[in-house]
Structure formats: C-alpha cells, structure tokens
Amino acid sequence: MRVAIAGAAVLCLVAVQPASAAWQTSNQGNAAAKAVTASVPGGLTCVKSTGVISWTAVAGVPEYEVYWSDKDQGGQGTFTVVTGVTTTSYTVTGKVPLRAKIRSVAGPWTSTQSAEKICS
Amino acid sequence: MISFKELVRRRYVRRGVIVFAVMTAALGSGVAYAAWTSSGTGSATTKAGTAQAPVVSGGAVTTGLLYPTGTAIGTAVVTVQNPNPYAVVVSSVAPNGAVPASGSCPASTVSFTAQAPGTPIAAGGTATITMANSVAMIANAANACQGADFAIPVTVTIVSGS
C-alpha cells in the first residue's frame, strides 16, 4: 500500500508542473547601419624636436597613412610613407621630420592627402 | 487472532486507499479543495490576451561603421518597442530580404547576419539593441557608398518572459 501511495504522490508531482508555453510574436522593420567616410584628417601637427606627428581621428576609419620627409620644401617627392598606422600619432626616429602629410584609409577607400605641414 | 471477516474488510479498505490515491493523481493534480462550498448559476467569461507584435525601427549608429572588407565588421542598431503588458525577450533579429540601395550605393552592397540578442524589455518598454559585427560590406564596394546610411530589413521576434 505504501508503494501505491508513493507512486500516486510522484504522479501528482509530475502532473502539476506549471505550463511553460511562451507567447511569441514577430514583426518586420529596419535596423540601421552606416558606412565610413574616409575624409581627410584634420589637426595635423609635426614637431621636429620630438619627431612626433599627430592628427585628429576620422570617425570609424581604422587606419592612416603617414607621409614625412627630412628634406625641406625643395625636396618634393622624397616622402617616406608609413602605412597601417592605427593610432592618431606617429613618431619618426633616427631622423628629424621637416614636413608631414596624412590620409585616412578604410579598406580600399582612402582620402586625399592632407595639406603638407611644415614641422615646427 | 484475526477473523476471516476482518481480513476481507481490511483488504477492501486497502483497495479503497489505492484507488483513491490513483484517482487523486490522475484527476486531482493542481486542484485545490475548498473547505467551503456553495453553488449558484450565471455565466462567466474569460478571454486570453493576444500577444502584440513588437514595433521595430532603426537606431542611431555611432560605432562599428562599415567599409569594404567582405566580413561582418559593422554594427547594426535596432529599436524594439514591446506593446504588451508583460515583459518579453528579443529572441532573434533575422534578415528579411536584400538591403536596398542607399543613394548612389547599390542594393545588396551590405548584408546582415541573424542575431539572437536575448535582450529583455519590460512591459510597454523599449530597448535599443546594438549588434556588433553583424553587418558586412562587399570588398569592392563603390566609393559612392562612403557615408551611406543603410536600412536593413529585419524580422524581430519577441518571446514572453524575462
């Protein structure tokens, strides 16, 4: 008899489990996304004594190309190009930068080069 | 010493207990017995609520901007309003067709990967869901796509609970 009562109790516990069906509904609409604009970085500075070239970030742009030269303005075409710079500054070591330019890069999209900056 | 009559009586009592226990399990689960009873006539009406569909719209995108890579590096933002009088969870945000053109940027330049954000929303509340690394732009996207805003068709599903 005890076995029968215990079995009935187990049945009760199993049977009284709460309903677990959830209500589900769907609707359509739009999510938003936005593309980068690879614009020319602003705020370019260049310091001869430290070799530091810095600029202002362009929103969403992942990297920059830095152009610097240790030649004065008579030395056109002698810029050293540094690619894949992911920060907003670059330090020239071993030489003294006299001129600098910068452009933003987002995959195949690039901005035009910034105006040349004469280092101070 | 127990008489034969007494043995028979006990057997009936035992059977009665077993039958009662089984009937209780089968029929009585979840039923509360009230000590007071009364009766009357009339009509009772009840109606189950109807689950209301979420209201879906785009949100402001400030991070995870897209550029041509062919991989899902971009962020999608969707705002979901729960019109129901109970809490829900946003169980999925799924693509619902090709992404249309944006200005001079052609259709299908970007694509969205289904997400399962699991974002809770209170009764009558609204949530803005930011889904990082959910949008890809094709690797050879036109320059005209720079700065474009994309409206990504999605189907948002909510489930009761929190």
Q: Can you tell me about this structure?
A:
The complex is a heterodimer of chains A (120) and B (162). Chain A has 120 residues and is mainly beta. Chain A has a domain at 42-118: Sandwich (Immunoglobulin-like), CATH 2.60.40.10. In chain A, 12% of the residues lie in helices and 38% in strands. Chain A has one helix at 2-15, and strands spanning 24-34, 45-47, 52-54, 63-69, 80-85, 89-91, 99-106, 109-110, 117-118. In chain A, a hairpin with a 2-residue loop joins strand 7 (99-106) and strand 8. The longest helix of chain A is centred in the first third of the chain and has 14 residues, at 2-15. Mean pLDDT of chain A is 86; it is low at 12-19. Chain B has 162 residues and is α+β, with helices and mostly antiparallel strands. Chain B is elongated, with a radius of gyration of 31 Å. Chain B is built from one helix and seven strands, in the order H-E-E-E-E-E-E-E. In chain B, the strands form two sheets. A four-stranded antiparallel β-sheet of chain B has the order 1-2-6-4, with no helix packed on it. Helix content of chain B is 15%, strand content 32%. The longest helix of chain B is centred in the N-terminal third of the chain and has 24 residues, at 4-27. The chains are: A mainly beta (120), B alpha+beta (162). The interface between A and B is large, with 34 and 64 residues. Strand 1 of chain A pairs antiparallel with strand 7 (149-160) of chain B, so a sheet runs across the interface.
Oligomer: heterodimer
- What can be said about the biggest beta sheet of chain A? 5 strands, antiparallel
Mean pLDDT of chain A: 86
The 3D shape of chain B can be described as elongated
SS-based class of chain B? alpha+beta
Strand content of chain A: 35-45%
User: What would CATH call the architecture of the domain at 42-118 in chain A?
Assistant: Sandwich
Strand percentage of chain B lies at 25-35%
What pair of chains forms the biggest interface?
Answer: A-B, 34 and 64 residues
- Provide the succession of SSEs of chain B: HEEEEEEE
Classified by CATH, the class of the domain at 42-118 in chain A is Mainly Beta
Considering DSSP H and I runs of 4 or more, what fraction of the residues of chain B is helical? 10-25%
- SSE pattern of chain A, N- to C-terminal: HEEEEEEEEE
